[in-house]
Amino acid sequence: MIDESDHDDGSSLDYNCDGPGSRVRWLRSMIKLFVGLAVVSLAVIVVWRGFNRDNSEPRTQADVRLEAPPSTVQFTDVTAASGIADRSERWPDGTHALPEITGGGVALFDADGDGDLDILQICCPPPGRPDDPAPNRLYAQQADGTFLDATVDSGLGDPGYGQGVAIGDADNDGDLDVYVTNFGPDAFYRNEGGGQFLEATAEAGFSGDHWSTSAAFVDFDRDGDLDLYVVHYVEFNPALLCEVETSPDYCGPQNFKPVLDALYRNDGTGTFTDVTREVGIDAPGKGLGTVCADVTRDGFVDFYIANDGEANQLWVNDGQGRFSDEARLRGVALNIYGEAEASMGVALGDVNGDARPDLFMTHLTGETNTLYMSMESALFSDHSDASGTSANDLRFTGFGCGFFDYDNDGDLDLAIANGRVKRGPPVSGANLGPFWNAYAEGNLILENDGRGEWAAAGGPKNAFASQIEVGRGLAFGDFDQDGDVDLVLGNLHGPPRVFRNDSPAPESHWLLVRALVGKRDAIGAEVTLTAGEKRFVRLVLPGYSYASSSDPRVHFGLGEIERIDAVEVNWADGSRESFDVDGVNRQITVQKGKGTQR
């Protein structure tokens, strides 16, 4: 969230490639072979960009698709119809205090164990009243598909200065627990069953009062229980005032000091110990988004951190309990022009069908979002311009994001929640009042052609894109159990927006897979579906986007495929099993230990 003129190339960050193991040394030696060419190429690129710095025109290639072919995209705003009432109070004008524009996380999860998805909205106090209680809100889904405000009964109405949320079964009892990130002390809620939660922050071992943004549960040490990574942002100074063109506006992160993130190891009983420095995570950042998964394809969970205005970090797990930052080494620290950007949300998925995970992250207007395509040896290349994403998103400020197959045709599409952090000309259709209209934007659906090339999917039936608000968190999940992925959007104020996906054609098939280890979701597992010559790879990954948590079930769009040969799961501990599937257009549950060993 910085102005383009304020970019820091990240050179102040300590970076040491001499991590443990021969893997890093080998990669370094290979990269040296290309240094000469890289320097020359970068010089040419920088000179070219210097003459083409006007951000009023997107950077494109001649073969990039700027518009999708006639689209079937249809997202219906069912917020009111589902029983979530719009709040009548007017949101006050902003005071230009940075924390008031970074919240808005949402979660889709089964809070009460009844088999359907509920919605948790993370709330923050009104501008100018930072000490006012701002309880989060739980909307419990009812048997008829509507949602009922169950905040008081559930105990999840944390009154802190809310930012984001992580969901996971911390004590392996089959119930999903909740970690809330705040501007100030975070909060942890243990699920007691039946939709009842008990605040247990200190009891579980969590402490500190840093400004936290995103967080994710994951089993990084392969011991069978979920650990927790918490992203921290900056040391905020409320006395600092900033201006843009002589008018007050929100300060960018370059005005504040970075903060070290926190990694909490689960001790096996649902209590946690801070092991951040012990495992080698020792460089602070200005983090907003994270994805915790096996980015390097070596079988161990890594931590990718989207930093705001600084080089991104990729904390690579050496398999022996230590981490080192290999973001620069692997090509995911900076963009193709060697610049750090204002990274916010982050998503991970195989967008071109090569069975390797690709990375996407959202940025400030004028920077473009960035798509890093995975190559051999777990290296990445910035394909933002070549893929067409930059041609569609240059003028937006993106936050929540995620890959999903919106039309069930077999490839991963992309949804992005937008909303400015710097004042701009109001967009037609904005109706938030003069102050917030200057920050409101429409959202984006980008359609994948199956090769990792993208075009905007618009049209009159895409309510998700036509809403002009200040978007932040974005969660994905099939809340109406019809086989396609729906969206829940968190804005800076007002209720969460619920968008039902009505896009897929009747002949487009699907499969939902819930993968379990014991009683809990197998977060970190990789699920591969094989159908004839086709192979689809997806992840059990609820923690991505921005400050949000999504449905942990794995969704496969299958197009015209009617027969599945097998579903194979690569569990987080490295073991593999195969499972037979009887038909399509259904949800199946696969459990570790009950398949065929591979």
Write the layout of secondary structure elements.
Layout: H1 22-32, H2 35-50, E1 75-77, E2 106-109, E3 118-121, E4 137-141, E5 147-149, H3 151-154, E6 162-168, E7 177-182, E8 187-193, E9 196-199, H4 201-204, E10 212-218, E11 227-232, E12 234-235, E13 242-244, E14 247-249, E15 257-258, E16 262-266, E17 272-274, E18 287-293, E19 302-307, E20 313-317, E21 323-325, H5 327-330, E22 346-349, E23 358-361, E24 370-374, E25 380-382, H6 384-387, H7 389-393, E26 398-404, E27 413-418, H8 434-437, E28 444-448, E29 454-456, H9 463-466, E30 471-477, E31 486-491, E32 497-501, E33 509-517, E34 520-521, E35 526-531, E36 534-539, E37 554-559, E38 566-570, E39 576-579, E40 586-591, E41 596-597
Parallel strand pairs: 33-40
Antiparallel strand pairs: 1-32, 2-3, 3-4, 4-5, 6-7, 7-8, 8-9, 10-11, 11-16, 12-15, 13-14, 16-17, 18-19, 19-20, 20-21, 22-23, 23-24, 24-25, 26-27, 27-28, 28-29, 30-31, 31-32, 33-34, 33-37, 35-36, 35-38, 38-39, 39-41
- Give helix % range: under 10%
Q: Strands of the biggest beta sheet: in what spatial order?
A: 36-35-38-39-41
Helix and strand content put the structural class at mainly beta
Instruction: Give the uncertain stretches in residue-range form.
Output: 1-68
Quote the average pLDDT.
Answer: 89
Strand fraction equals 25-35%
Distance between the termini: 46 Å
Number of helices: 9
Specify Rg, calculated over alpha carbons: 22 Å
Number of strands: 41
Reported for the largest beta sheet, the result is:
5 strands, antiparallel
Given the C-alpha coordinates, what overall shape results?
Answer: globular
